[in-house]
Design a protein that fits this description.
A four-stranded antiparallel beta sheet has the order 2-3-1-4, covered by helices on one side. The protein is an alpha+beta fold. It is elongated and about 75 Å long. 50% of the residues lie in helices and 25% in strands. The protein starts with a helix and ends in a 5-residue tail after the last strand. Strand 2 and strand 3 form a beta hairpin.
Length: 114
């Protein structure tokens, strides 16, 4: 009778141990994924899209803010801009989203092909 009770107890202990190990591995993978996602973005470049008729005024506001137009995507009505060194991405995104004529502000994502 003791053997029958011992087997389920051992199974329960080993399942708990496996579950703890799996949980730690999942947590580790989640942290690694978070770190990888953060490194996928440029730390100083934003991509903006604007109304075609607002291009001139948008570029003027960007320069006034202290940002630099890195590349003008003419066929897309967009631009890659380098934010000022004394500003964060978050500050710059918020500022740019409030410029009349800007439709969208995105972080410049770094993609790797494997």
């Amino acid at each position: 009778m003791k053997k029958l009770i011992l087997i389920p107890a051992l199974l329960l202990i080993s399942m708990t141990t496996i579950q703890c190990h799996v949980s730690k591995k999942i947590d580790s993978l989640a942290e690694e994924e978070k770190e990888n996602n953060e490194s996928k973005y440029s730390k100083n470049t934003l991509i903006i899209y604007f109304e075609p008729s607002a291009k001139e005024s948008v570029f003027k506001e960007i320069k006034k803010y202290g940002a630099e137009i890195k590349y003008n995507y003419e066929s897309l009505n967009g631009a890659a801009i380098t934010i000022p060194k004394n500003k964060t991405l978050e500050e710059s995104e918020k500022y740019l989203k409030n410029i009349k004529g800007i439709l969208e502000v995105n972080r410049d994502q770094i993609m790797t092909i494997q």
